[in-house]
Amino acid sequence: MSDSIFVTRPQLPPLEEFIPYLEEIWSSRILTNGGAFHQQFEQALCEYLGVKHLSLFSNGTLGLVTALQALRIDGEVITTPYSFVATAHSLLWNRIQPVFVDIDARTLNLDPRKIEAAITSRTTAIMPVHCYGHPCDVEAIQEIADKYNLKVIYDAAHAFGVRDAFGSVLRHGDLSVLSFHATKVFTTFEGGAIVCPDARTKQHIDHLKNFGFVDETTVVAPGINGKMSEINAAFGMLQLRHIEQALTERRRVDGFYRSELRDIAGIRCLEGQPDHTVNCAYFPILVEPDYPISRDMLYQKFRNEGIYARRYFYPLIADFPMYREMTSARADNLPAAKLAAQRVLCLPIYPTLTLDDQRRIVDVVRDV
Ligand code: T4K
Question: Each residue of 171-181: pLDDT tens digit?
Fold first, then answer.
């Protein structure tokens, strides 16, 4: 029996490379609360990503929750049902009403053409997701936001390092939130960051993630504990040394799948935008009706072979119990998202996925 293959595996540098970082933490005895690695890592990430300001977080979800707090968002927020559940949960944690708008069947991102019809007098913001690291139609979304005076918070959990022709996609909107979870392109075990447009916003967010403390005796807001520890920040510094290599390997896997799956009837690969630098965070395929078996049957066939492809994102967020009674969660409001949730399967993709394993995966799809 061959080894199991998972949808993703974290890229771990050789253990001995991490030892000097640990020694530094051990000798300084500063473990958290904005220590030296935290500061270095914020700086280094800004440089790598090509953004001016960011604030590190202990995970992406707390980043989303805090971003909404920072912009004082309330009322209703327009968002996508086709995402990881943390996107909408961050709204509920702030007692904000999520309003689901359908996705574009081509990109699987929030469909800007559907947004205006969902705006009410209570709408205060839009929270789109750069799903699988494929950028949203940022210009169309910004145009609507400007017209109705809405904030835009991008859930950029999948979009580490993604660039358009003019720079990082993280510069768009009022804030963008990254995740550095173990399953992501770039990981700090757990972690995340909010990308901010200016130093003042960053300072406010820095206060919010540290209980609202400004100094030893001053608390300016009911903040939370969202700080990244020194171990995570040190690991992030080390990961940055290997990220380019990891992205190259991911692009290699992506290229292999695209060329091998191209001629299989009923299997469609999601296209990126040609002038973008992609990160190949995921490899979603759409199992269409002319494929001999359904997506779920293919998923099961993979499992029988010890290959753990994943149905990201099924079920739709709108179908979970805390959302499904909402008017915007109705199936007839979300036809494209419903279809995607039934058809998409994410194939394994990560830097150390061997060519043999890639062949094994393609063979499963081909041998139906
Ligand atoms: N917004 C979006 C759009 C997101 O996708 C996410 C997270 C967030 C917000 C929230 O960000 P964080 O708060 O998480 O920073 C995973 C992740 O837990 C989650 O972070 C991620 N999205 C989501 C898409 O996927 P699961 O339940 O699928 O993970 P799990 O444990 O089943 O792992 C999948 C596979 O990865 C495993 O079969 C094996 C491999 N794996 C996993 C872990 C945790 C490893 O090899 N090593 C590991 O340590 O949710």
Answer: 999 999 999 99
Say how many C-beta atoms besides its own lie within 10 A of residue 92's C-beta: 13
Whose alpha carbon is nearest atom 46 of ligand 1?
A: 9
Sheet-wide strand order for 123-127: 53-57, 192-196, 175-179, 151-155, 123-127, 76-79, 97-100
Atom of ligand 1 nearest to the CA of 90: 9
Cα–Cα distance measured from residue 116 to residue 152, given in angstroms and rounded to the nearest whole number: 14
**Does CATH number 3.40.50.12100 belong to domain 15-240?**
no
Stretch 120-134: mean pLDDT, rounded?
98
Q: Give me the mean pLDDT over the 148-165 stretch.
A: 97
Q: Which residue's alpha carbon is nearest to atom 16 within ligand 1?
A: 183
How confident is the model at residue 273, as a pLDDT?
A: 78
Q: Region 196-219: what's the mean pLDDT? A: 98
Atom of ligand 1 nearest to the CA of 155: 1
Contact 209, 55 (CB under 8 A): yes
CATH of range 243-366; options 3.40.50.300, 3.90.1150.10, 3.40.50.920, 3.40.50.1820 = 3.90.1150.10
- Angstrom CA distances, 173 to 93, 138, 220, 354, stand at 21, 8, 25, 38
By C-alpha distance, which of 173, 186, 212 is closest to 64?
Answer: 173
Residue 25 Cα to ligand 1 midpoint, Å, equals: 27
What is the residue-averaged pLDDT of the chain? 97
Per-residue confidence band for 1, with pLDDT thresholds at 50, 70 and 90? low
Cβ–ligand 1 contact at 311 (below 6 Å): no
- Say if CB 209 and CB 66 are below 8 A apart: yes
pTM above 0.85, yes or no: yes
308 touches ligand 1 (CB under 6 Å) = yes
Residue-wise pLDDT tens digits, 314-358: 999 999 999 999 999 999 999 999 999 999 999 999 999 999 999
Q: How far is the CA of 183 from the centre of ligand 1 (A)?
A: 5
